Amino acid sequence: MKLAFIQEIISTSDASIVAASLSAPDEYVLLLSSGNVVRQKAGETAAKHLFSVESSMGYQDGGFDIAAPSTIYTMDDIVVVVNDYKRHGYVHYPGKYTGLHLWREDYHASISRFPVALFRDQLNVPYIVYAVAWNHLQIMNLDTRQVVTAAKSLIKEFAEESHIEFYKTVEEANKLPWPSAYDYFFGKLYMSPNNSRFLSAGWVWGSSDLYNVYEVADFISNPRIRDKRVNYWEHNNRGVCWIDNATVAVTYHPYSDDEEGAAKDDPWEIHFYNVDSDADEPARKIKIPGPDILQANMHYLKHLDAILLFGGNAGVVLVSTDGRLLFSDANLKINGYAEASDLLYVTDDKSVSTYRIS
């Protein structure tokens, strides 16, 4: 296995590239240091201006921070740009609106990735899942801008029953109103392959990684919150990806996750969970020798039946789902992977280069 160079685009703007993504195999979306978001095709020097993240609104926190880490999400022509660990973002939908403002409350936003996911339903209607607060997600129809979860409460399903059962054996020091609001920090979101579910790589006080799965149809129709816990671990912001509509893969390290008797030089692991099962334990595990993959970005490559890991301390790693190491280079730096195009990309101040594993 090797990384094969595909193509490169060079920005002719005086501004530098802050973030990039692919919207098609030969089409790139760039966030520039000027605040402009542009679209540029391979083989062309001119870029098309889409919108600007600069705003004349007097936000108390200064609004979108062009100097802060940001991510660009794309689905066909739709573009979403958000500050990863701040409060602001924008949606661009050609023919509908130029820059629809997204905003979330500031409660530990600096350590909680801005939750965003794009998907289409069976009728091809585009939707966005996005945060308005640390424990509060909304789903919006992007064609109509209707928030289809507007009536949803922040109370978990069966919260009253859980409260009564818990306090049968625990003395209640503070007589507070109950049931309490959903006590969970949503994190980065991942849609299942068929768009019927989304996973939140979030956390809870303790603090711990806690990854939950939600059914899209239920999240829209149910006035309460119903979640399916994958598992919880030490707060390491671990990598995760979907393998199929019922299986997720999660990175793990016995020593970093405080496993009894573990050694610092133990190999890294990937744990596979069946989200249709009631078991907290993984269905199976594989061990990964080599670089630290715990906080790596993860993507499942179906045509190779393998998991791609990059970022953090991993460099670039490709491992089959049965544990065979197919490729590893700790010195490579990859900025992103476009699943629809099966392309990896590397960004610098003036260019974006794309590669494919072959």
What report would you give on this structure?
There is one protein chain. The protein is mainly beta and 358 residues long. The chain has a single domain (3-357), classed as Methylamine Dehydrogenase, Chain H (7 Propeller), CATH 2.130.10. Helix content is 4%, strand content 47%. It has a four-stranded antiparallel beta sheet with strand order 1-28-27-26, with no helix packed on it. β26 and β27 (343-347) form a beta hairpin. The longest helix has 8 residues, at 159-166. The radius of gyration is 21 Å and the shape is globular. 35% of the residues are buried.
> What fraction of the residues are assigned to beta strands by DSSP?
over 45%
Strand elements, count: 28
Q: Per the principal axes of the C-alpha atoms, what is the gross shape?
A: globular
The topology string of helices and strands comes to EEEEEEEEEEEEEHEEEHEEEEEEEEEEEE
SSE-based structural type? mainly beta
* Tally of individual helices: 2
* CATH top level assignment: Mainly Beta
The biggest sheet, with number of strands, parallel, antiparallel or mixed sense and barrel status, is: 4 strands, antiparallel
CATH-derived topology: Methylamine Dehydrogenase, Chain H
Quote the distance from N terminus to C terminus. Answer: 6 Å
From the coordinates shown, what is the CATH architecture? 7 Propeller
Rounded radius of gyration (Å): 21 Å
